[in-house]
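# nightly structure sweep
# worker-07 picked up a monomer target from the shared queue
# config: single-sequence mode, recycle default, output format = structure tokens
# input follows
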Amino acid sequence: MEVSLLNVKITFQKNAVAVDGIGNHKNTWADYYSCHATAGGEAGKQTSETAVAGTVADESDVSFTVRWCKKAAAVDSTGFRVVFDGGIYDIVAVDHMNYKKKCIKFKCRKARR
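# output follows
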């Protein structure tokens, strides 16, 4: 994998439960790992919009490829999300690229707010 292709910075966030002073539990997102990646697909430049229940929903799909490391290998699609260029992306699938420990590809979809 060429290092020069890793031209965007992404941050993985992990879902965590925070407890306030009186014992209430609340789901929060905490920064887990930040690294450089290659953005493929639409990369947020073109949008695919669909009309759902009278509203327009953005359906942008982006693939991020990062170099393999232990922290990136621990990321899964259920408890993590990606922050890229001010947008939040849900991880749809994780591809370990034949388990050669060189790179990992994350297929993501823009999160609805």
